[in-house]
Specification:
single chain, 179 residues, mainly alpha, two-stranded parallel sheet, 2 strands, globular
């Protein structure tokens, strides 16, 4: 959302939220599973775009008549402004935008897991199934990533952090199925 894939409005709201967090000296972290999920998602979408779009769809026409705010629209908007550039350049652009965002807001990549994934596997799978149940279009892999992140937050919280006022670690998501 912060790089604009889901529309300019969501991008601006997300960046505003990040600025507020930065102003409070909060630390933003991306978990290892989030980074892996993002990369898998982008790779999957790029493969679909390569297979289905080029050169059959003219980007200028697509952006004129389609108003979905998703990666396909984001790609066609980019392609209409960067005519003649290969989709691999678009893929590099996405990765560069994420790196710039991480630098701008000092977002850390957290590759450490505060819990033993093997020991908690059943709990995480059960949580993922529950999350998947609430999201009609949610893939199980996405729900599994959410479950890992929730478990990561729980494992990082101290025993006294049981309310929004005492907690120091949060999971930020725009997924309504997690509320």
């Amino acid at each position: 959302r912060a790089i604009g894939i889901n529309g300019e409005d969501r991008k601006e709201r997300t960046l505003s939220f990040f600025r507020k967090l930065r102003d409070t000296n909060s630390i933003l972290r991306l978990s290892k599973v989030t980074i892996e999920e993002y990369n898998r998602s982008i790779d999957g979408h790029i493969k679909k775009i390569k297979r289905n779009e080029a050169p059959a769809v003219r980007s200028k026409v697509y952006t004129e008549y389609v108003d979905y705010n998703d990666l396909w629209y984001f790609y066609h908007d980019w392609a209409s402004k960067n005519q003649g550039l290969d989709i691999s350049v678009f893929e590099s652009t996405l990765k560069s935008m994420i790196m710039d965002l991480k630098e701008q807001f000092q977002i850390e990549e957290d590759t450490f897991s505060p819990f033993d994934a093997k020991k908690c596997e059943n709990e995480v799978m059960e949580m993922a199934s529950s999350i998947r149940h609430y999201g009609n279009n949610k893939l199980f892999d996405t729900a599994l990533c959410d479950a890992h992140n929730i478990k990561w937050v729980e494992a990082n919280r101290n025993s006294g952090e049981n309310s929004i006022f005492s907690a120091k670690t949060f999971f930020i998501s725009s997924d309504w199925g997690l509320y």
